[in-house]
Each structure stands twice: as structure tokens, then as C-alpha cells.
Design brief:
3% strand; 4 helices; mainly alpha
Length: 115
């Protein structure tokens, strides 16, 4: 299972890098609205990934919602997403098979419970 996860998270890192490359090719004036929407969506995905990483390690994440209060720039998101992708690749490379089988209870930012 960890081999499959390494492959999937490696692919995700590659796909995210390619996404940022493609977004960087767009004219920022002509596609201002679309790039702003993309930044909001990527920010949401990134925040959720960081929250989930905190749940995996038992750390406090400090997020009050599933998006940043102020949306980061695409350049800031590129660096943050790359760091997060790297963290997940490293995490699945070192996690034990027993840990992958554990059920993990957590609380969503809106207070709902999940597992």
C-alpha cells in the first residue's frame, strides 16, 4: 500500500507543478478573474491538505476554516503546495503499514466530527 501511495503522491506533486507552470503562461491581465478563482480553489485544496497532515501527525493546524483569510498569490501558493507535496511524499515513504490501517478521528474546522 505504501508503494501505491508514494506513486500517487509523487504524481500529485508532478501534476501540481505542471498546473502552476500552465497558469504561469496565462496573461495575468487578460485572465485576471480566472487566475483569482484558480488561486482561491488551490488555496482551499492546500489548506485542507495541511489540516489533514496535522491530523495525521497529531499536531495542531491553527486553521479556523478550509481556506486562508486572505488568498495567497499564485507564486506563494506554488511554494506552499510544493512544500506540502514534498511532505506527503516523505510521509508515505516513512509511514508504517500498521499506521496506514489505523482509523483516525478528527474534527473539521466547522466542528463536525470525522474519521
Amino acid at each position: 500500500m505504501s508503494g501505491l501511495l508514494r506513486t500517487l503522491f509523487g504524481y500529485q506533486a508532478w501534476a501540481n507543478e505542471d498546473l502552476f507552470d500552465k497558469l504561469g503562461e496565462l496573461d495575468p491581465e487578460r485572465y485576471r478573474t480566472e487566475l483569482a478563482k484558480a488561486a482561491k480553489l488551490i488555496d482551499h485544496s492546500h489548506v485542507v491538505a495541511r489540516i489533514f497532515a496535522a491530523h495525521l501527525t497529531g499536531a495542531r493546524h491553527g486553521y479556523m476554516s478550509d481556506a486562508s483569510e486572505e488568498t495567497p498569490t499564485l507564486q506563494e501558493l506554488r511554494a506552499a503546495v510544493a512544500a506540502s507535496d514534498h511532505w506527503y511524499v516523505d510521509y508515505v515513504a516513512g509511514v508504517s503499514p500498521a499506521s496506514l490501517d489505523e482509523r483516525l478521528a478528527f474534527v473539521f474546522t466547522d466542528g463536525d466530527k470525522g474519521c
